[in-house]
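ZP: hey, is the pyridoxal-5'-phosphate complex queued? I don't see it on the tracker
AM: it wasn't, my bad. submitting now with these inputs:
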Amino acid sequence: MTPIAPAKEALALHGGTPVRAKFLPYGRQSIDEEDITAVAETLRSDWLTTGPKVGEFEEAFAAWVGARYAVSFSSGTAALHGAAFAAGLGPGDEAITSPLTFAATANCVLYQGGTPVFSDVREDTLNIDPERVSERITARTKALLPVDYAGHPADLDALHKIAGRHGLIVIEDGCHALGAEHRGRRVGRISHMTVFSFHPVKHLTTGEGGMVTTDNVRFADTLRKFRNHGISSEARERQAHGQWHYEMVLLGFNYRLTDIACALGLRQLAKIESNLARRRQIAARYSETLSSISGVTLPVVQDHVLPAWHLYPVRLKLDSLKVSRAEIFQALRAENLGVNVHYIPVHLHPYYRDRFGYKPGDYPLAESAYERLVSLPIFHGMTDRDVEDVISALRKVMAEYAA
Ligand SMILES: Cc1ncc(COP(=O)(O)O)c(C=O)c1O
């Protein structure tokens, strides 16, 4: 008797039963009772903002990362703005960054009246390619703004060498990379300034929130003023002039993070090691099992880094598939998998096209990656069942569409 091949399961997109009954997002927060208690205690305290939790969170964060100073901000975007200001970026200045990032990375240069200059990514890690960066440097270049894409640190050695040669400041966008390591050193203690985000999909959340870490006392001082209207509120000045006295010494903003948020951040920071361990476990399971699925390329990890796995982005081998990324994306969504795409290259957003004249083809590696990328769900609260559902759904969809 000839064996009968098992019937291929119909895709949910075509009316079949989805792999999951409930939608699984690509990322989400984990909040436990300790977090809720800490926030409630702060709500009952005298200080909802500018109180003691802010300093406590900043000190604990700096200590964990291994930086001398950490200055909190109301978002990662505000933190990037602060870093661009502290670096002295202004009209006429250029900062070189990756096109494959969230728009906020480049926008912070525009906030300061400077010009973001994009430089294409490496094909393997999708991080900015240091060799191309050198070609983009002009007399106006003031800063490099590498992004640790998906939580894999950029080529920080090479970038710092270039920065040293040209007297540039390195502002690292580490919004994906809290807990990542580069040659055994944690992201946050390597660059002149490193920026983090505490949005709910990140490794640690405060609702909205951000941080800049630095070893440079002048940067730390400027960052503190900038996020507080540019006000210098040194105790000795207040004593000299009476308690009411303060001086605005630069044009800042209200970018403060509240004590409510910092109380949550402190509790979340206490769980960062286990959150990272869980993300690494999930990534290892994906890498081990998904390598047998044809039609996808898995993320590359360089030998000298330990990624933080904010994202797990696979790339579709479009040549060996019957359909486009859009159809695969819809098919995975129909299976109730919250896949996503990171990122539409920044230069292709209408604002950047209209203002700077960018067009498709300007950064071919970032664009080619974008057309193929699909971020699979990864977050520390995922159960083993969730992880296996992702694997099953990807296997089911790719089997349907393999050419
Ligand atoms: C690479 C990158 N930079 C900056 C940001 C901005 O952070 P936030 O959302 O906290 O403003 C994000 C947020 O998703 C990000 O992914």
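AM: back. The pocket of pyridoxal-5'-phosphate is lined by residues 75-77, 101-102, 104-105, 147, 173, 175-176, 197, 199, 210 (CB under 6 Å).
ZP: great, adding it to the tracker
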